[in-house]
C-alpha cells in the first residue's frame, strides 16, 4: 500500500478531496493558475445558486402566495396581531388551542404575583417614608388617587407588614410553580435571553405543552384518550389558584401595592394588570380562556414562526404566509433570511412605551422603534416591499395620558406641546414619517394605522384594509413580471 501521506488541508479520508488534491510536484505558476481556476469555478457556482434562488422565487410568485412579515421590537404586539389574523382566517384553529393557552395565562399570573411580592420585599423598610412622604406622583385620579389616604402605614405599619408576610406565606406554593410553568412553556429547554418574559417559545408550543405533560408518549393512543388527559402541572396550578384566589385579590387590592404603582416603584406589565383584574374568572376551576384572554396572554416569540392562511379575494383564494418574528434584540438576526422574498411588511411600534426603556436602560423604547424602523426602511433587500406601519397600543397610550403622565418628562423634544392624545399620536407619527421620507429612494407609499390590536373589531377592519392595499400592490407587481 502507498507510503504514509503528509498531513494536508485536503482530508485524508475523503475520496473527493483525494481526487482534487494538487500534485506534490506543483510549481508556483501552476499553483497560481489552479487558484485562479478554483476562484472562477466558485464564482460560477455562486452565480448558479443565485439563478436557482431567483427561479424558485419566480415560481413562488407565480404560485400566487403572499409573504407578509410582522416586524417590530419586543412586546410591540406582533404575535397579538398574528392571533387576529388567525381569528379572522382560521378561527377554528384558535378554538383548538384555547385550552392550552391556560398554561401561558397561569404563567403570566404567577409571574405577576411573584413580581409584586419581590417588589414589596425590597421596599419593605422604606415603604413607610415612600408612601407617606410628599406626593411626587404624576398620576391624578383613577385607581391611584386614594392611595395615600388609605395607606396601611398610617399608624399601623406593623400590622400591614404582618398582612404582607401572611399573604407571602400563603402564596408561596403558587409562586414556586413559576419555574415548572416556564419549563413547560419552553418545551423543557431553558434558554436564557434578554427578554423580559424570560421564556422563549417556538411555534407549535401549543401542541408541545400537551405532549410534554403526557411524558412524550410515543404510542399512538386514541385521540379521545389524549383529550381526557390534562397536564398534571396545569391542574395543580389551577387547584392552587382556586385555593388562593382571595389572597391574590387581597394582594392586588392592597393600598400599598396601589401606592407603589402610583409612585412607579412597582411596574406591572399590561398583561399582569389585565389578568389580576380578572382573577376571579381566571382562578375558577373550570376556567377556559376567552378570546380576549388569549389576545392579552403574553409569551415571547423565539426565532420566526410561519403561519399560513387562505385569504379570499375577489372569489379567489390566495395563500398568505405570515412570519411572526421574535422582536428582542438577541432575536433580530433571525429576520434577515426572510427579507429577500417578502411581499409586504407590517411594522408594529408601541406608542404607549414612551415612558419605558426596557431592553437597554439607556434607550427609550420609542427611540428603539425609530432606529429599527430606519434599518427596515433603508434595507436594500426590502426596497420593493409594500410597507405598513401600525402605531400600536393606542388604548394604553390614552390611559397613560388620562392618568396625567407627561410625554415631555421622557421625551424632551416634545417641549411645551399639549399633552393630549391627538397631539401626542400625531407627534409620534410625524417622527416615523420623517424616517420613512429620509429613506425612500423608491418613492414607495407608507400606509399608517393607529391601532390597538387587542381590540378585535377595530383590528379586523384594519386587517381587511391592509389586505386590500397589499393585494393591489401585489397585482401591480405581478403584472410587471
Ligand atoms: N392593551 C393592549 N395590549 C396589547 C396591545 N398589543 C399587544 N398587547 C399586549 O402586549 C403584550 C405583548 O404582545 P406580543 O404580541 O406578545 O408582542 P410581540 O411583538 O409578539 O413580542 P415578541 O414576541 O417578544 O417580539 C401581550 O400581552 C399583548 O396582549 C394593544 O394594542 N393594547
Ligand atoms: Mg411575539
TrEMBL record:
Highest taxon of source: Eukaryota
Pfam family, one: G-alpha
UniProt GO molecular function: G protein-coupled receptor binding; G-protein beta/gamma-subunit complex binding; GTP binding; GTPase activity; metal ion binding
Positions annotated to bind Mg(2+): 301
Biased composition (Basic and acidic residues): 30-42
One Gene Ontology term from the biological process aspect of the record: adenylate cyclase-modulating G protein-coupled receptor signaling pathway
Single GO cellular component term: heterotrimeric G-protein complex
Keyword Nucleus (UniProt): no
Keyword Magnesium in annotation: yes
Region: Disordered, residue numbers: 1-42, 128-155
PANTHER family to which the protein is assigned, alphabetical: GTP-BINDING PROTEIN ALPHA SUBUNIT, GUANINE NUCLEOTIDE-BINDING PROTEIN SUBUNIT ALPHA HOMOLOG
Name of the protein in question: Guanine nucleotide-binding protein alpha-4 subunit
Species annotation: Collybiopsis luxurians FD-317 M1
Lineage: Eukaryota, Fungi, Dikarya, Basidiomycota, Agaricomycotina
Amino acid at each position: 500500500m502507498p507510503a504514509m501521506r503528509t498531513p494536508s488541508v485536503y482530508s485524508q479520508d475523503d475520496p473527493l478531496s483525494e481526487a482534487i488534491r494538487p500534485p506534490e510536484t506543483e510549481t508556483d505558476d501552476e499553483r497560481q493558475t489552479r487558484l485562479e481556476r478554483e476562484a472562477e469555478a466558485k464564482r460560477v457556482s455562486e452565480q448558479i445558486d443565485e439563478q436557482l434562488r431567483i427561479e424558485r422565487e419566480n415560481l413562488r410568485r407565480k404560485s400566487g402566495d403572499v409573504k407578509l412579515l410582522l416586524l417590530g421590537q419586543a412586546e410591540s404586539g406582533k404575535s397579538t396581531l398574528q392571533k387576529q389574523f388567525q381569528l379572522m382566517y382560521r378561527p377554528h384553529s384558535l378554538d383548538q388551542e384555547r385550552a392550552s393557552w391556560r398554561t401561558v395565562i397561569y404563567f403570566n399570573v404567577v409571574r405577576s404575583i411573584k413580581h409584586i411580592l419581590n417588589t414589596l420585599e425590597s421596599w419593605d423598610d422604606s415603604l413607610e417614608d415612600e408612601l407617606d412622604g410628599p406626593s411626587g406622583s404624576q398620576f391624578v385620579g383613577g385607581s391611584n388617587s386614594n392611595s395615600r389616604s388609605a395607606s396601611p402605614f398610617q399608624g399601623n405599619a406593623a400590622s400591614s407588614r404582618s398582612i404582607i408576610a401572611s399573604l407571602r406565606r400563603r402564596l408561596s406554593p403558587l409562586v414556586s410553580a413559576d419555574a415548572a410553568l416556564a419549563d413547560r412553556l419552553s418545551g423543557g429547554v431553558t434558554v436564557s435571553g434578554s427578554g423580559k418574559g424570560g421564556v422563549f417559545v417556538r411555534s407549535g408550543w401549543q401542541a408541545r405543552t400537551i405532549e410534554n405533560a403526557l411524558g412524550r408518549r410515543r404510542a399512538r393512543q386514541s385521540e379521545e384518550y389524549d383529550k381526557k388527559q390534562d397536564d398534571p402541572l396545569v391542574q395543580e396550578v389551577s387547584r392552587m389558584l382556586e385555593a388562593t384566589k382571595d389572597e391574590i385579590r387581597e394582594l392586588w387590592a392592597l393600598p400599598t401595592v396601589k401606592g407603589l404603582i402610583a409612585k412607579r416603584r412597582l411596574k406591572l406589565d399590561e398583561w399582569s394588570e389585565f389578568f389580576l383584574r380578572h382573577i376571579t374568572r381566571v382562578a375558577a376551576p373550570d376556567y377556559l380562556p376567552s378570546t380576549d384572554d388569549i389576545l392579552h396572554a403574553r409569551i415571547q416569540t423565539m426565532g420566526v414562526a410561519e403561519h399560513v392562511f387562505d385569504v379570499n379575494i375577489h372569489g379567489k383564494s390566495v395563500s398568505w404566509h405570515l412570519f411572526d418574528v421574535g422582536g428582542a434584540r438577541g432575536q433580530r438576526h433571525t429576520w434577515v433570511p426572510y427579507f429577500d422574498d417578502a411581499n409586504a411588511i407590517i411594522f408594529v411600534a408601541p406608542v404607549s412605551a414612551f415612558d419605558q426603556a426596557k431592553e437597554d436602560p439607556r434607550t427609550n423604547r420609542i427611540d428603539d422603534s425609530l432606529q429599527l424602523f430606519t434599518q427596515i426602511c433603508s434595507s436594500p433587500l426590502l426596497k420593493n416591499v409594500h410597507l405598513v406601519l401600525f402605531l400600536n397600543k393606542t388604548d394604553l397610550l390614552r390611559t397613560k395620558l388620562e392618568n396625567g403622565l407627561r410625554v415631555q418628562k421622557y421625551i424632551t423634544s416634545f417641549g411645551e406641546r399639549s399633552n393630549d392624545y391627538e397631539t401626542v399620536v400625531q407627534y409620534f407619527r410625524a417622527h416615523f414619517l420623517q424616517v420613512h421620507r429620509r429613506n425612500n429612494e423608491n418613492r414607495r407609499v407608507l400606509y399608517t394605522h393607529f391601532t390597538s390590536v387587542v381590540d378585535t373589531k377595530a383590528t379586523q377592519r384594519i386587517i381587511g384594509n391592509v389586505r386590500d392595499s397589499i393585494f393591489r400592490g401585489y397585482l401591480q407587481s405581478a403584472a410587471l413580471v
